[in-house]
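Standup notes, structure subgroup. Blocker cleared on the zinc ion input:
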Amino acid sequence: MHEYSLVEALVRRVEEEARRRKATAVHGLTVSLGELSGVDPELFRTAYETFRAGTLCAGTPLTLTVFAARWSCPRCQGEIARGSALRCPACGLPARLAEKADALMLESIDLEVP
Ligand SMILES: [Zn+2]
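Run returned:
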């Protein structure tokens, strides 16, 4: 499953970061998930619960922030309603997808560094 490989990559990255900073524990993880990233938040959470056993993240709570897809006009910044044509009614320009709506990002790692 897609979510499992994403979680694996995430945990590896956290472990790498922790090693690099000589951290002894990871107290928290914050991940942002865009609505259009193709990642199911529930599956992602389940994958994390399964995968973290035996890693540095075994006792680390995961905070998932889901970003809704929002489109706006690149010129007038007007927001374009969901479900309507993805074009600004005033300027006629193609709508631009809001930042983070199609991405999965590791926002922060709370490390304990002695
Ligand atoms: Zn516009």
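Discussed briefly. The first helix runs from residue 2 to 20.
Next: hand off to the docking folks.
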